[in-house]
Amino acid sequence: MNLYDNLIQECYDLTADFSVRPLPFVNDGLLWETEEEQRLIFQKDMAYELGGSGLPAVSALAYTSRTAENDRLLLCGPDLPDLTADSPYARLTVLHINGGDWQDDQAYRLLRQMEYTRYHVYPRGFMMRISTSAGREPVRVSRRALREGLDFSKVGQIFLRAYRQHPQVQAVSLLFITAPEFPYELLAEKAAKMETVTGSLDRIFNNLIMDCRSCSLKPVCDEVEGLRELHFTRQS
Predict the structure, then answer these.
(1) Which strands sit side by side in the sheet containing 72-76, from one edge to the other?
(2) Alpha carbon distance 23, 13 (integer Å)
(3) Exposure winner among 73, 141, 167, 183, fewest CB in 10 A?
(4) How many CB atoms lie within 10 A of CB 188?
(5) How do the residues of the chain divide into helix, strand and coil, expressed in percent and rounded to 5?
(6) pLDDT tens, position by position, 151-206
(7) pLDDT tens digit string along 201-229?
(8) Could you tell me which residues come within 8 angstroms of residue 110 by beta carbon, excluding any fewer than 6 positions away?
(9) What backbone torsions phi and psi does residue 28 show, to the nearest 5 degrees?
(10) What is the pTM of this model?
(11) How many other CB atoms are there within 10 angstroms of residue 159's CB atom?
């Protein structure tokens, strides 16, 4: 699975002019509490909103078969305890999946199952308001959770544990971004292309479009290395 590799590198390239630091891992016995379902955080209980006040709130997800020895938690910008007002926000997730055959009819379903993990992660005091239609993932952060020590390290490790429940996931690289001057609009463009690549796999595996000239995905195939070859392989 190398269809996303160039896009992944382009996303990391956007951080070249910013400081990116690794976040520590806490002992599993000290993991932050999770909720069984999404619990509302009302404005009166909210410290601030990541992506609030019309600010960017980007979520990008990509897959790669490149090996990674360990999970990674990274932060570009202030951590949750250091924020005092609404902030721009982004979360880039890269799932390192095993090197098996990702060219069968189940590949799309498995990738979507991994993606949908985000709808079942509920860190206490960290309320994600995901809008797939708008391509946004703003987050409300509660005052109480901040007082009790909530930070991106704790949130990130909950995400890591959830993604690692999928047997195909060998490692996870998770980057949180809150840097005010970061080019969120460019990251959003990369995220949209990643989603288009994933969506194109459904068409390819189901042979919905056989003629490149009439396919709306032609611009994607022209740009994403390996996608056109996969399409031709499925046709043969």
Answers:
(1) 21-22, 72-76, 169-177, 89-97, 57-64
(2) 19
(3) 167
(4) 18
(5) 40, 20, 40
(6) 999 999 999 999 999 999 999 999 999 999 999 999 999 999 999 888 887 777 66
(7) 777 766 655 566 656 666 666 666 556 56
(8) 166, 168
(9) -55, -30
(10) 0.89
(11) 21
